[in-house]
Write a structure and sequence with these properties.
Blueprint (H helix, E strand, L loop, with lengths): L1 H15 L25 E3 L1 E23 L7 E4 L6 E2 L4 E5 L2 H41 L4 H41 L2 E3 L4 E6 L15 E13 L13 E5 L5 E6 L11 E5 L11 E18 L4 E3 L2 E7 L5 E11 L3 E6 L6 E3 L2
Length: about 350
């Protein structure tokens, strides 16, 4: 009897495990899946210093440079220098064609020279005639009345001729000044000792517009790091020591150049205090300055704070462990952290972005 019961039980269990034919099984198998609450990465609200920094990038460059141009419109006849050439103050670097002006000036100068000689001769002749009349009067050859009439005749005759020559010389002098001014605009001269750093391409035989820059000369003996973000100049004091960082952790000890010493107000200038290496023009360096700071305040990483319609908020967990939004008020946004002024307390856990 016990043996028969065991056999029957095995048959029942075998059917439940699928050992019996499928058409003899019935019923539905229910699968239950339980979902765990999300496991968020959290960050704690802490106290600390919120600092807003600004990194300024500087380039090593010459302190003095001049951008040169022609003063008139004409075709470039000669360019006498190349990039990298050393020049002295006053050297002619390039010139325009000046044949017409040269010829006109030559004619004017010849006429001025001729009229100057004739004027001088006329005055000398007048003086000679006056002297002869005076001698005749003293010898008694002329009466006083005759002498006075003679003097008036000499003065009157010479006066109109002298005025004519003087008027001609004055007008020709004005023409000479105009032509010389035009000729001066036909030449480019170095205004300082230096090195030619750039020349407009294909300058010779071209026709540049008057006033357009065609040649640049720099003074390579005076160099400094310069930063074009002049709105940050107020964060530096004249003569202040500033450490600039170059590539490869190289540091340059510099000094802020005062406005009086700086060549212009287009840059903030940092001069190297002790240069013991040959530093090439164009080297880059940077300095990071503190723009603003809040000390010992509640703060969070700025990347964890969201903004919608001008309102700031963060995400945190509610009592059920679900993600929920919480509005906050912020203060200073620094380079890495943001000051929290309302809505959170120290130790609160915030969901990381």
């Amino acid at each position: 009897m016990l043996a028969l019961s065991a056999v029957l039980m095995q048959a029942v269990f075998a059917g439940g495990c699928g050992l019996l034919p499928a058409e003899k099984t019935s019923g539905t198998i229910m699968l239950v899946k339980s979902e765990a609450a999300p496991d968020y990465e959290m960050v704690e609200v802490t106290r600390g210093d919120v600092v807003l920094e600004q990194t300024l990038y500087c380039t090593y460059a010459q302190l003095k440079e001049e951008h040169l141009s022609f003063g008139v419109n004409s075709t470039v006849q000669h360019v006498y220098v190349g990039v990298g050439d050393s020049v002295k103050k006053g050297d002619v670097l390039a010139k325009l064609y000046t044949d017409d002006l040269d010829s006109e000036l030559e004619i004017l100068n010849e006429r001025v020279e001729k009229n100057t000689i004739l004027l001088r001769q006329l005055k000398e002749l007048k003086d000679y005639d006056l002297s002869a009349a005076e001698q005749s009067y003293r010898r008694g050859s002329l009466s006083k009345t005759q002498y006075e009439e003679r003097v008036e005749q000499i003065e009157s005759s010479a006066r109109s001729q002298i005025q004519s020559y003087e008027d001609s010389l004055y007008i020709d002098g004005l023409y000479v000044e105009q032509i010389e001014e035009q000729l001066a605009g036909c030449y480019i001269r170095a205004g300082m000792d230096g090195v030619v750093s750039s020349i407009r391409a294909y300058l010779e035989n071209s026709r540049p517009t008057a006033g357009s820059e065609v040649i640049t000369v720099v003074d390579s003996s005076q160099c400094a790091f310069r930063c074009e973000l002049t709105e940050y100049a107020k964060y530096f004091q004249d003569g202040e020591e500033v450490i600039l960082k170059g590539s490869g952790d190289v540091e340059y000890v510099t000094e802020v150049l005062s406005a009086e010493e700086a060549p212009d107000d287009k840059f903030i200038y940092f001069t190297i205090k002790e240069l013991d290496i040959a530093l090439a023009v164009g080297v880059r360096a940077s300095v990071t300055i503190e723009i603003d700071a809040r000390k010992d305040v509640l703060m969070l990483p700025s990347t964890m704070i969201y903004n919608a319609d001008g309102k700031k908020y963060v995400y945190c967990e509610n009592e059920d462990g679900l993600k929920t939004m919480k509005f906050i008020t912020t203060g200073l946004t620094g380079s890495q952290f943001t000051e929290i002024t309302e809505g959170l307390q120290e130790g609160d856990m915030i969901i990381k972005r």
